[in-house]
Amino acid sequence: MVLGIDLRPCGAGLKDRLSGDLAALFIYGSLLFPEVLRALLGRVPDRAPATAEGWRIAGLAGRRYPGLVPASTHASGFVVTRLNVDEWRLLDVFEDDAYELRQIELDGRRSALTYVYPHVDALSVDWDRGHFADLHLASYVKSCRAWRERYYSSVGKLEAHQRPNS
């Protein structure tokens, strides 16, 4: 933990999860907004509409952002491609331990990784994207920018600490 940011996912675990052809990420919540992607990644990666059958985008108590949970419906989002290793690492830390990175099937013909919410405390109501945009997006983007600054500051301190003495 450096400056309140847990950097454990930067190790081999994330690399192992990203091996093979799984270079696509299904996004469904706050990451749907280009402003949020830009605040976190410094750019808006290539993305295309996608649907995940057997999932829904659930509201989470006390949180502005949602979780993807199993359901007898579908979740609409985007598939983001061409993320580099540093961007994957950043997103893995950003999503924190409340989420698990898993492979899911999309549109019945392709797979992608996504962050699912594996806990049973998701709300029975779906997350409201419009409500989030109207009431929370501006402040959320601001907090994402601040989080990114702390993250890169922490990564720099960690890398400096891990360098061998000359």
List the helices and strands and how they pair.
Layout: H1 12-17, E1 25-27, H2 34-41, E2 47-60, E3 67-80, H3 85-95, E4 100-106, E5 110-116, E6 122-126, H4 129-135, H5 137-162
Antiparallel strand pairs: 1-3, 2-3, 2-6, 4-5
Helix pairs in contact: 2-5
Account of the 3D structure:
The protein has 166 residues and is α+β, with helices and mostly antiparallel strands. The chain has a single domain, classed as Gamma-glutamyl cyclotransferase-like (Hypothetical upf0131 protein ytfp, Roll). The protein has 5 helices and 6 strands; from the N terminus they run H-E-H-E-E-H-E-E-E-H-H. The protein has helices at residues 12-17, 34-41, 85-95, 129-135, 137-162, and strands at 25-27, 47-60, 67-80, 100-106, 110-116, 122-126. It has a 4-stranded antiparallel beta sheet with strand order 1-3-2-6, with no helix packed on it. A two-stranded antiparallel ribbon has the order 4-5. Mean pLDDT is 85; it is low at 1-13 and 160-166.
